[in-house]
Amino acid sequence: MKKLIGSLIYALMGWKLENNDKLTNEVHSCVLVCGPHTSNWDFVVTVAAFWKLGIPMKVFIKDAWTKPWYGFVIKSLGGIGVDRSARQNLTAYAAELLRNKTERLYLVNTPEGTRSFAKRWKKGFYYIAKEGEVPILFAFADYKKKKAGITGYIDPAIYSFEEVLDYAEKFYADVTPKFPEKFNKNFR
User: In this structure, are residues 171 and 70 in contact, taking their beta carbons and an 8 Å threshold?
Assistant: First the structure.
C-alpha cells in the first residue's frame, strides 16, 4: 500500500526518482543521510520516495510528536520518539538497532539538525554508522530538477569523518534545496 501511495504522491507532485537500485536492493541496513534539509516538504518528498522504493526507514523524532493522540501516525511513518530533555546514549541505541541482522533498517539522519541555516554538520550520523557497522547512504531531494533518490554510498569503516564530509560536499554540490539560502554547502 505504501508503494502505491508513494507513487501517487510523486505523480501528483510531478517528481521523479533517480535511484541506485543496486544500493537500495543490496544494502541490508544503513544510516541514510538525507539532504538538503531546509523545509518541512523535505519530509513529504523523501518519505514518499522511500515508500515508492519499499525502503524500511525509521527516524528519531522528538517524543512530543509520538505521545499525543496522533502519535500512532508518526510511529507508522517511521518515527521513533526520543526524550531530548534526558541524557541518553542515542549513538549506542541506534547502532544496536542497526546491528540487528534479522530486521532490515534504513535509519534516516539529517546532519544539518535543523531546517534553518546550519554552520556545520553534526557528527552523530558517522558514529552511529561506524558503531553499527553499516554503510552511509546519501539521499537527496532536488527541487529545481524535481528529482529525488538514493545514489551515494560510503563506508565509515574505511573513511574518516573528514573524508565522509568531503564526499558529502561533492554529492550535494549540484542539488538545489527548497530554500537555497538555508543550505550551507560547507559542512565543517
Answer: no
Q: For residue 107, what is the DSSP state?
A: E
C-alpha distances in Å from residue 93, one per residue of 90, 122, 128, 167, 171: 5, 17, 9, 26, 28
- Please report, to the nearest 10 degrees, the dihedral formed by the alpha carbons of residues 142, 119, 97, 50 taken in order: -10
First to last CA, the chain: 40
pLDDT computed for residue 87 by the predictor: 63
pLDDT at 162: 94
Kindly give, in sequence order, each residue whose CB lies less than 8 Å from that of residue 78, ignoring residues fewer than 6 positions away. 47, 57, 58, 59, 108
Alpha-carbon gap, residue 165 to 163, rounded angstroms: 5
β-pair partners for 17: 148
pLDDT average per 10 residues of sequence, the chain (188 residues): 89 91 86 87 85 85 81 81 72 87 86 71 90 94 93 95 94 91 78
**Residue whose entry in the numeric block shows the C-alpha cell 508503494:** 3
- pLDDT for residue 164: 94
Dihedral (C-alpha) 105, 111, 113, 116: value to the nearest 10 degrees?
-130
Alpha-carbon distance of 128 to 130, in angstroms, equals 6
